[in-house]
């Protein structure tokens, strides 16, 4: 009975701790994408060539400036520019889903550049990183206030995310040296086994004939 | 008295001893013994040369896990570590999926199908492995599997699309048949009294590989990235580690291992007259016994669910709770690592309940453990905060892994003649269940992964109701007692029913009768008051685990 009391107490304690976690976590997840000011920044992203871009090699010329329709300019402290998935690259891939809750949204995982906010038009020459997956993308710039909360954004495509998209082809990740090493170790594995096997059979035959 | 022996090489013998309840002999044996210890040794080798105490077949009668003494403990360690290594290789891709899916442009269906493929190959390789061990011995059986599947692990460096990824995972999955070779090896090395504990440790510690890999692969990946490789190359290099482990283990098995206590298969001569049991008969009695199918399905929802979780849980924590890759791996690893104590615990619980309530106690224990596993699985799917998800996952892991241990507390009693085949079929059921649950719940965008987990838990609980249908005329079932028919309520009647009249006249069923006498303890506390002569039922430790 004392043991069951102890078990009850520890279960209750852990439940309490979990509840506290729930409450504290819940408070920070309320900020929504739909609350942000749309089109506060005018963003353009020009690929270095017209065809599918190669990760690790090709570049994007990105520019952003304050839009004439922006109202929350006073709060802008930093600009975070990100590479985002177009809807076609989100199909059957729930880990890239667009969510309204900013904390949960996974559609813009790749950081391009973060710069302090400047009134004058900004530009950046971005070389596509080697870990960018194959897909179709656009560029979005979030305007962030001093508390690191997003307040506004601008993107290089329209609201339906259908214009000005560009495609990227990922690196394969394969290397000739890796392929060769793989073949060598595989051959070694099979050969070692065969050598052992044949050797032992031979020894057994010799012993039997004695 | 007729000879009753199972020479190595006869079909089905490879799985004998897998569970704690029968005697396993490497060589032919006289029928008039009432235990292995009174058999006159056919060789003059002094048993003093062995580091462990041995019986007349030179099988160890003591289990010392910290010893590496040749040949018994060496065989034990080589066996379970080989099995452990294969679990690492089979589930090595799972914690790296967040990287692999970006490199190969995989969809959720691609990932799910590859997961199904990774467990499907072993359904067949496990069934074939028994025959392989009978023909080549445990040493070569293990080494062949390790060293011929190592190339499949290395070939991850060539994969460039979803099709390649699926093929490689399918081929790697074949090596899970090391379960069979591991259990076969310990069965010829250890005496029947302790084989339950030995096999339980070997099985449980091997299964831990599915947990360790969730920790190992992200760490290796991280180190390789620090060394300068780009992520899409680093994960391919990471796969060389399980490949190396397999090759190294293969070489160790060949150089340090020994098939049998007295030497290797090829250098020993077979003696004695052989009356091999016919495979068709063994197969027939397995197929006719409805409990085979029930166990096949039940194991699919404890071991099967466990293997499914090995494939999906790391990605689940990574995506749902926005964790780092190695943090998600750590959490996922604790699921598989619980095997170290959870499986033996289940077998132990089964043995304890049998002491009081007999077979009915075992059935209820299984139902309780597997159903609680299902309940906590549902809770895991519902959990929206990290601490609750971890708590529910740990409770879920203990429930479902203990259920795996508990099932093998029941398998030994289902059949005496077809024991090996039924044990193998139960094991294959685990892979089948894993393939099925991954196909239904985790291969399409129909369900969010969280909902998939909850639905899988519910499906598991529904299938676990099948335990109620396992009925033994001599012991009863969950809701019914033993039959009141005087003749049918004897254990002998149940086990002798597997032999035809002709075979009974030849005395081939002697072993079954002896077994029936030994398992009267499955009546529970009533057995004590029956005043029967208590033979050598191995009550300590748990039967084998897959």
TrEMBL record, chain A:
Q: Which GO terms describe its molecular function?
A: nitrate transmembrane transporter activity
- List the transmembrane segments: 180-198
| Endpoints of the signal sequence | 1-26
Provide GO CC annotations from the record: plasma membrane
User: One of this protein's Pfam families, by short name?
Assistant: NAR2
Alphabetical list of InterPro entries matching this protein: Transptr_NO3_Nar2
Top-rank taxon, per record = Eukaryota
Q: Enumerate the UniProt keywords alphabetically.
A: Membrane, Signal, Transmembrane, Transmembrane helix
Would the keyword Transmembrane helix turn up in this protein's UniProt record?
yes
Coiled coil start-end: none
Gene Ontology BP, a term? response to nitrate
Q: Does the keyword Calcium apply?
A: no
Q: Which PANTHER family does the annotation name?
A: HIGH-AFFINITY NITRATE TRANSPORTER 3.1, HIGH-AFFINITY NITRATE TRANSPORTER 3.2
Record's protein name: High-affinity nitrate transporter
TrEMBL record, chain B:
**Mind telling me which Gene3D superfamilies this protein's record contains?**
MFS general substrate transporter like domains
Biased segments, Basic and acidic residues type: 502-528
Q: What ranges does the record give for the region Disordered, renumbered to this chain?
A: 502-546
Subcellular location, in the record's words?
Answer: Membrane
| Domain of life of the source | Eukaryota
Q: How does it sit in the membrane?
A: Multi-pass membrane protein
Q: PANTHER family from the entry?
A: HIGH-AFFINITY NITRATE TRANSPORTER 2.3
State the name under which the record lists this protein.
Major facilitator superfamily (MFS) profile domain-containing protein
Q: Which organism is it from?
A: Brassica cretica (Mustard)
Q: Kindly list the organism's lineage.
A: Eukaryota, Viridiplantae, Streptophyta, Embryophyta, Tracheophyta
């Amino acid at each position: 009975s004392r043991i069951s009391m102890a078990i009850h107490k520890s279960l209750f304690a852990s439940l309490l701790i979990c509840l506290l976690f729930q409450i504290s976590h819940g408070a920070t997840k309320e900020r929504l994408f739909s609350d942000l000011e749309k089109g506060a920044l005018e963003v353009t992203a020009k690929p270095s060539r017209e065809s599918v871009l190669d990760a690790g090699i090709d570049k994007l010329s990105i520019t952003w400036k304050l839009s004439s329709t922006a109202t929350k300019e006073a709060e802008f402290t930093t600009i975070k520019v990100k590479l985002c998935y177009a809807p076609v690259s989100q199909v059957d891939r729930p880990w890239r889903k667009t969510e309204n809750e900013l904390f949960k949204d996974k559609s813009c995982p790749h950081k391009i550049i973060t710069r302090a906010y400047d009134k004058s038009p900004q530009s950046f020459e971005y070389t596509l990183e080697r870990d960018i997956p194959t897909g179709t993308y656009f560029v979005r710039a979030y305007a962030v206030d001093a508390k690191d909360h997003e307040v506004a954004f601008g993107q290089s495509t329209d609201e339906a995310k259908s214009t000005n998209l560009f495609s990227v082809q990922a690196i394969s990740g394969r290397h000739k040296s890796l392929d060769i090493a793989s073949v060598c170790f595989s051959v070694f594995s099979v050969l070692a086994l065969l050598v052992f096997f044949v050797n032992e059979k031979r020894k057994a035959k010799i012993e039997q004939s004695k | 008295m007729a000879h009753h022996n199972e020479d190595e090489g006869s079909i089905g013998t490879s799985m004998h001893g897998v569970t704690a309840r029968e005697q396993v002999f490497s060589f032919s044996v006289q029928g008039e013994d009432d235990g292995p210890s009174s058999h006159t040794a056919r060789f003059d080798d002094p048993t003093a040369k062995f580091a462990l105490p041995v019986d007349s077949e030179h099988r160890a009668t003591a289990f010392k896990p910290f010893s590496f003494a040749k040949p018994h403990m060496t065989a034990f360690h080589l066996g379970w570590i080989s099995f452990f290594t294969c679990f690492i290789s089979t589930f090595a891709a799972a914690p790296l999926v967040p990287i692999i899916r970006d490199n190969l442009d995989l969809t959720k269906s691609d990932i799910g199908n590859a997961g199904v493929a990774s467990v499907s190959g072993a359904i067949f390789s496990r069934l074939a492995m028994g025959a392989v061990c009978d023909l080549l011995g445990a040493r070569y059986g293990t080494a062949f599997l390790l060293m011929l599947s190592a190339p499949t692990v290395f070939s991850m460096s060539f994969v460039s699309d979803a099709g390649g990824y699926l093929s490689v995972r399918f081929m790697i999955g074949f090596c899970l048949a090391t379960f069979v070779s591991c259990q076969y090896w310990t069965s010829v090395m250890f005496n029947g009294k302790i084989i339950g504990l030995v096999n339980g440790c070997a099985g449980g510690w091997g299964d831990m590989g599915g947990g360790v890999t969730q920790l190992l692969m992200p760490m290796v990946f991280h180190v390789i990235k620090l060394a300068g490789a780009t992520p899409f190359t680093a994960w391919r290099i990471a796969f060389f580690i399980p490949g190396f482990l397999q090759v190294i283990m293969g070489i160790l098995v060949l150089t340090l291992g020994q098939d049998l206590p007295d030497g290797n298969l090829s250098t020993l001569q077979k003696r004695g007259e052989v009356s091999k049991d016919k495979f068709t008969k063994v197969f027939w009695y397995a197929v006719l016994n409805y409990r085979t199918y029930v166990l096949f399905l039940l194991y699919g929802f404890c071991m099967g669910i466990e293997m499914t979780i090995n494939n999906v849980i790391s990605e689940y924590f990574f995506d749902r709770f926005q964790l780092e890759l190695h943090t998600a791996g750590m959490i996922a690893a604790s699921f598989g690592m619980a095997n170290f104590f959870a499986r033996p615990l289940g077998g132990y619980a089964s043995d304890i309940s049998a002491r009081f309530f007999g077979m009915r106690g075992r059935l209820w224990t299984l139902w309780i453990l597997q159903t609680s596993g299902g309940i906590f699985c549902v809770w895991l799917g519902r959990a929206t905060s990290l601490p609750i998800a971890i708590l529910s996952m740990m409770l879920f892991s203990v429930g479902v892994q203990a259920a795996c241990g508990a099932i093998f507390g029941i398998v030994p009693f289902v059949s005496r003649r077809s024991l090996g085949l039924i044990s193998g079929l139960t094991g294959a059921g685990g892979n089948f269940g894993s393939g099925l649950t991954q196909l239904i719940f985790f291969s399409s965008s129909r369900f969010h992964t969280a909902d998939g987990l909850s639905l899988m838990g519910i499906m598991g609980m529904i299938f676990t109701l099948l335990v109620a249908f396992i009925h033994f005329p001599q012991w009863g079932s969950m809701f019914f007692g033993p039959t009141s028919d005087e003749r049918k309520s004897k254990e002998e009647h149940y086990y002798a029913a597997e032999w035809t009249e002709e075979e009974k006249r030849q005395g081939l069923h002697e072993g079954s009768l002896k077994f029936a006498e030994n398992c009267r303890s499955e009546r529970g506390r009533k057995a004590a008051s029956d005043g029967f002569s208590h033979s050598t039922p191995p009550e300590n430790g748990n039967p084998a685990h897959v």
